[in-house]
Design goal:
- This is Nitrile hydratase accessory protein.
- Pfam families: NHase_beta_N.
- InterPro entries: CN_hydtase_beta-like_N, CN_hydtase_beta_C, Elect_transpt_acc-like_dom_sf, Nitrile_Hydratase_acc_put.
- This protein is mainly alpha-helical.
- The chain has one domain: Cyclin A, domain 1 (Orthogonal Bundle).
- Helices cover about 60% and strands about 5% of the residues.
- It has 5 helices and 2 strands; from the N terminus they run αββαααα.
- A two-stranded antiparallel sheet has the order 1-2.
- Helix 2 packs parallel to helix 4 and helix 3 crosses helix 4.
- The longest helix is centred in the middle third of the chain and has 17 residues.
- The chain is globular.
Length: about 130
């Protein structure tokens, strides 16, 4: 999904704590931008409200802090991704089992992919 700057800024303003500058949200890694875009697309499709998102993200961050996350900001998008997985499962978009199956398949595919090459999922990645 390609985000317009206006969409990204609206989301960054709607959800407290999103790392941003005057132009909108900022990302340190490409996967962070993809996770942000997926959440925005699901919000715009009506899967959840920003209030639901913020409450779930806040609970995720508190849980992580209780488990020792130093809350330096470096793990913010890991919490974002965990929130995305939680809401996708809670709203019936995909089950937790399916999400874990795909995450494991991506891990397997990444393990066999040379550094710098595109990661491609294959049927055998799901067989582990």
């Amino acid at each position: 999904m390609d985000l317009t700057p206006q969409q990204a800024m609206r989301a960054a303003v709607a959800v407290p704590g999103v790392p941003r500058d005057e132009d909108g949200p900022v990302f340190r890694e490409p996967w962070e931008a993809r996770a942000f875009a997926m959440a925005l697309a699901l919000h715009e499709a009506g899967v959840f409200t920003w209030k639901e998102w913020a409450e779930t993200l806040g609970a995720q961050i508190k849980r992580a802090q209780a488990e020792g996350d130093p809350d330096t900001g470096e793990t913010y998008y890991r919490h974002w991704l965990a929130t995305l997985e939680t809401l996708v499962a809670a709203k019936g978009v995909a089950t937790s089992d399916l999400l874990h199956r795909y995450r494991d398949a991506w891990d397997h595919a990444a393990d066999r992919t040379p550094h710098g090459a595109p990661i491609e999922l294959r049927a055998e990645d799901f067989g582990r």
